[in-house]
Write a structure and sequence with these properties.
Blueprint: H1 14-27, E1 37-39, E2 43-48, E3 53-54, E4 59-68, E5 74-80, E6 87-91, E7 96-98, E8 107-111, E9 114-119, E10 122-131, E11 141-153, E12 157-170, H2 182-192, E13 197-198, E14 204-209, E15 213-219, E16 228-231, E17 244-247, E18 251-257, E19 268-274, E20 281-286, H3 300-317, H4 324-337, H5 342-372, H6 386-404, H7 418-440, H8 448-456, H9 460-483, H10 485-488, H11 497-524, H12 526-548, H13 553-576, E21 593-595, H14 598-606, E22 611-616, H15 621-631, H16 634-642, E23 646-651, H17 657-665, E24 673-677, E25 686-688, H18 694-702
Parallel strand pairs: 3-12, 13-20, 21-23, 22-23
Antiparallel strand pairs: 1-2, 2-4, 4-10, 5-9, 6-11, 7-10, 8-9, 11-12, 14-15, 15-18, 16-19, 17-18, 19-20, 22-24, 24-25
Helix pairs in contact: 3-8, 3-9, 4-7, 4-11, 5-7, 5-9, 6-11, 6-12, 6-13, 8-9, 11-12, 12-13
Length: about 725
């Protein structure tokens, strides 16, 4: 078998091409008979057409499904240094048309000094089909025929061709119940989801030439440590050269080596950009000055500024509505520690602080690890997990039962020895700090949002510095109290009233449980809610065992088993049941909120319309307070309705990578976040404070320019497809 290889370059190679053509004719398999799939020793290709009927006005997506033997590959639309992409010629019924092949992002395929771009194992190339409104079939069954050709390579290249045919029922009107091949549709959707998307409206891509090549700078709103660029134009970059990624505060700079045959400087770099953890982007970067934000952005001054904001934000977090349960927990800890001497009170204070800071570190570590693995997550991500919500609800319910007097936490440990009983109070202070941090995370206090956004956009060291300061700010009021004896003496003396107060403190704890149960139902659905309520009942039974037979090994073991069974119920329900769908509707005041999407934001901004985006979530109490107190006010509703501003609601209750990326581009990693776009091209959005007031919102609306009425002829970028058209050599 001769090692035949096609070269896709403009260099003269007539003799080589003639030899390759001869090799291809000798090695190509004979045309297969018309059927929906064809196989060779190297691959199997199948024609996918999900609908079983064709009717006037129909639009659907089909595809060519290639299953490739391991070790072999086929090619992307720009094959790289060698190769040819698949091609298809159609023979379709009159009135049915097929669009161009769409190509998902490729992979780099090195071969010696060359670099190819293509696919291994499996790829589906989607195709959009349209049926004309005046479609009049001449037969009940009509064939759709695809003449497919390809080049499959390993150490040798083998051209292949096949005729694929599927027959579909032709109708004169849409059927009442269309029949669809669900498996074929799912295969197409899987690869459609990978298709490159346009850059977000607020992202920037520019390039500049260098003596050896180009520097491509891209701002995505978050730090990127690795990226790959696949050119759609031939002979612009050296395909086999390494692409060095330099991370920046809001994106990255990619160093590219130019192709040795390039003689004229390009005006654009057109291609596909792959960034781990993000969708692939279709970019058309113009020649121009690199964005100033592309510089590293790290300085000790900026770090200290972010730490100062974090300290203030942590202190103000004590006053936020989402931290009300924390205030009760801390109040109980203060009263219990007031009976100790100064040294013990300070020990309690530092253990409480350690609980907060260590909890911040744990959450931050998980966040950094998951982001490094490609997950796009932001602050408060743990509240997007139904399992986490269920465990928190159960933890607070169990704590509430203990405070209410059903049983004493740790009473069974007293039989182990006096030393453990002595340490029980210190452990209580530590875990009070843990609970304080857990309940404090659903919302973002003033000054806290910019600090968290800065921290997560920089190195792990910077993130830990900022989050440590944030934890100190949250614990600082308690530390000040225990370090100033004069303030501590204002606390009431211990007595029998403490037991009554402890039981009273169970009320806000149970109120927190109600809130967490509601959040669980919002995220997991009402059917899964039954499992969580059953788990709470089991916890009450476990508490009865501990209270009825305190410090008994048998009762303790029974309680442990019951608690384990209780924890398994909501976990199983959240995994087994589908998540409920959510919709955004008009509010009572008449304002119409639409679900956020980058395409919709881009559409309105391209039409010159101002846009107000509310980044919110059901688990964010600050968001809900702003909604009820400000956004739902009748005068605010009227002002928003009459302002000409388009209203988008980005609901982050459940994890949404698109919303996480949008927050990162705004320099935020938590909510509430409010962004007001003026509609002026290139103008960055105005970010409103986390604590919203009608005056702040009215002032921001007053700053907008007069918005002209939109033209019905304005193009809508949302209608653009993700099809990558063939580049011109």
């Amino acid at each position: 078998m001769l090692p035949c290889r096609q070269i896709r370059t403009p260099r003269p190679a007539a003799a080589l091409l003639a030899l390759l053509f001869a090799c291809g004719m000798l090695l190509a398999p004979a045309p297969a008979r018309a059927q929906d799939s064809a196989s060779t020793q190297q691959l199997t290709v199948r024609l996918l057409l999900p609908p079983a009927q064709l009717y006037p006005g129909q639009t659907f997506t089909g595809g060519l499904d290639f299953h490739i033997v391991p070790g072999w590959h086929i090619y992307w639309i720009n094959a790289g240094d060698s190769g040819e992409p698949p091609n298809v010629q159609w023979n379709l019924p009159q009135g049915v048309t097929a669009g161009q092949l769409q190509y998902p992002p490729p992979m780099r395929l090195p071969l010696g000094p060359l670099m190819d771009f293509g696919y291994q194992n499996r790829v589906v190339l989607p195709i959009t089909f349209k049926v004309a409104p005046d479609f009049h079939p001449t037969a009940k069954q009509v064939p759709l025929i695809a003449n497919v050709s390809w080049l499959v390579c390993q150490n040798v290249c083998l051209p292949g061709r096949a005729t694929l045919r599927l027959t579909r029922t032709a109708l004169t009107a849409p059927p009442a119940r269309p029949s669809v091949d669900a498996a074929a549709q799912q295969s197409i959707r899987e690869f459609q989801a990978q298709m490159p998307r346009p850059l977000p409206p607020d992202a920037i891509a520019r390039f500049q030439p260098t003596p050896q090549g180009f520097r491509l700078a891209v701002l995505l709103g978050h730090r990127v440590t690795h990226a790959q660029f696949f050119p759609l134009d031939f002979t612009v970059i050296a395909n086999a050269a390494p692409q060095k990624t330099t991370p920046t505060r809001n994106g990255f700079v990619l160093s590219l080596l130019k192709d040795p045959t390039l003689t004229t400087r390009p005006k654009h770099l057109h291609g596909v950009l792959e960034v781990p953890g993000s969708p692939a982007y279709l970019i058309d970067a113009p020649l121009g000055a690199l964005p100033t934000q592309a510089a590293s952005g790290f300085s000790f001054g900026a770090l200290f500024g972010a730490m100062g904001l974090a300290l203030l934000g942590g202190m103000l977090l004590n006053l936020m509505p989402c931290v009300f349960p924390v205030l009760f927990i801390k109040g109980l800890a203060l009263v219990q520690s007031s009976q100790h001497d100064r040294r013990k009170m300070r020990a309690h204070g530092w253990l409480y602080t350690a609980g907060i800071i260590l909890s911040f570190w744990v959450i931050l570590s998980v966040l950094i690890i998951l982001r490094a693995a490609g997950r796009q997550l932001g602050w408060g991500f743990q509240f997007q997990s139904p399992i986490m919500l269920a465990l928190m609800a159960m933890l607070f319910f169990f704590l509430g039962l203990s405070l209410a007097g059903q049983f004493e936490i740790g009473l069974s440990l007293t039989s182990v020895g006096g030393s453990l009983a002595q340490k029980q109070g210190y452990a209580g202070s530590f875990f009070t700090g843990v609970l304080a941090m857990v309940v404090a995370t659903p919302c973002t206090a003033p000054f806290m949002g910019p600090a968290i956004g800065y921290a997560l956009a920089h190195s792990a060291f910077t993130s830990f510095c900022v989050f440590t300061t944030l934890g100190l700010g949250l614990a600082l009021p308690y530390l000040l109290l225990v370090y100033f004896p004069g303030w501590a003496r204002l606390l009431p003396r211990p007595g029998a009233w403490m037991e009554i107060l402890k039981q009273a403190f169970s009320i806000p704890i149970f109120a927190t449980v109600i809130w967490l149960v509601w959040l669980y139902a919002e995220v997991a659905g009402t059917t899964a809610l039954l499992a969580l309520l059953a788990a709470l009942l089991l916890l009450a039974i476990a508490g009865w065992f501990l209270g009825r037979w305190p410090a008994k090994i048998g009762a303790t073991l029974a309680a442990v088993l019951i608690v384990a069974a209780a924890a398994a119920l909501p976990w199983y329900a959240a995994k087994a049941l589908p998540a409920p769908s959510k919709s955004v509707s008009a509010s009572a005041g008449g304002t119409h909120w639409q679900p956020y999407s980058p395409a919709l934001l881009h559409k309105y901004l391209s039409e010159g319309k101002p846009v107000f985006v509310d980044f919110t979530a059901d688990w964010c109490l600050s968001c809900q307070v702003n909604q009820r107190v400000v956004l739902d006010r009748p005068d605010v509703q009227r002002r928003l309705s009459n302002s000409g501003v388009e209203l988008l609601k980005a609901d982050w209750t459940r994890h949404d990578k698109t919303i996480t990326e949008a927050l990162a581009r705004l320099g935020r990693s938590g909510i509430p976040t409010y962004a007001l776009y003026s509609g002026t091209p290139g103008e960055p959005p105005r970010l409103l404070p986390a604590v919203l007031t009608p005056g702040i919102l009215f002032s921001a609306l007053d700053s907008l320019r007069t918005v002209p009425p939109p033209s019905s002829a304005s193009p809508s970028p949302a209608s653009a497809t993700n099809t990558i058209l063939a580049p011109q050599p």
